[in-house]
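Assess the record.
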Amino acid sequence: MGTKGGIKEGLAKIQMPAGVFFNPHMQLCRDIFSLSIGALPEKKLSLCDCFAASGARGIRYKLENKNISKLSLVDWSLPAADACKKNIALNKLKNSRAYKSRMETFLAKRPSDFLEIDPFGTPAPYLHPAFASFSNAYSKSAYLSATATDTAVLCGAHSDACYKIYQCSPLNCEFCHENAIRILISKIARTAADFEYGISPLFSFSHRHYVKVLLRVQKGAAFAVSSIKTLGYVSYCPKCLYREWAKFPTKKTCACGTILLHSGPMWLGPLWEKGHVQKMLQLLPARPYLQQAQLQKILCTVESELSLPPFYYDAHALCKKLKIGAHSLEALQNSLAQKGFCFSRTHFLPTGFRTDAPIEEIKKALL
């Protein structure tokens, strides 16, 4: 940002005029979601990047994936729209255009199969025009990718803001970043249902200051109802770190006597589709321009954790509660495995893990 120079990222060459936003720290995000698009089964998709800025994300998506046949780069800023136009030409992209327009106005006239919503802050205000666009185009299926950078809101630091924006009660706890994604998906599912669409998460990711999801969108009352029925609440004890989840909270107090904290309504279903993640792993070796080692580690971790229960634990938080020194995750895994429990690290947190063991067994394994 603020330079007249240019960069090369992935397969794209991007010029960045002064005043046009570009975040170099989002390269990993662009890497992993470009790969995720490549794993989609469709052969021809029209894609609209609704907050394109320099156009880096959308241009990479099209350059790196043969299944993107048409690209629209949309931004309300004239300098950004001009930059997109120049970067399209610089990368010699065909069937690609830049537009100076508000997202809502553009989508009302020019629908796409795939909408990329990557605004500053929350994507919540833009979900209604996104699904209205799908509906107006009579789309039976589509894709939506949404980024939220208001993680302080989603993670419970500003509860009132979360009520207002997402109509959810957040939770400031050790698994708050998973909560954040589940609250975001809940908001998307409820907006989708207004237009008789259901959603299915294909890939979810949390890193640094943001959370991001890629969802399949399907038309039909049955899909919409199924999505809404997947919403529910997590109940959490801040004293003993017990947690449970259900359609509605069923307990007021924990077995230890502490009043439970409740968060929701949130998405309680899977955050990833196993076949989609495996396809991403298959495609990765053929893309040497990506951050191979880092992506391999992330995807292997996700593949391991996706089949285990939601709401990961933090080994450091547990050790602090038990007033013991830090415990290695490898030793904890071995102890739980000896008792027949499953275990996986999580991409959400370096000291985080998932297991089907109850909290009492986890504590025994740590002591």
About this structure: The mean pLDDT is 97.
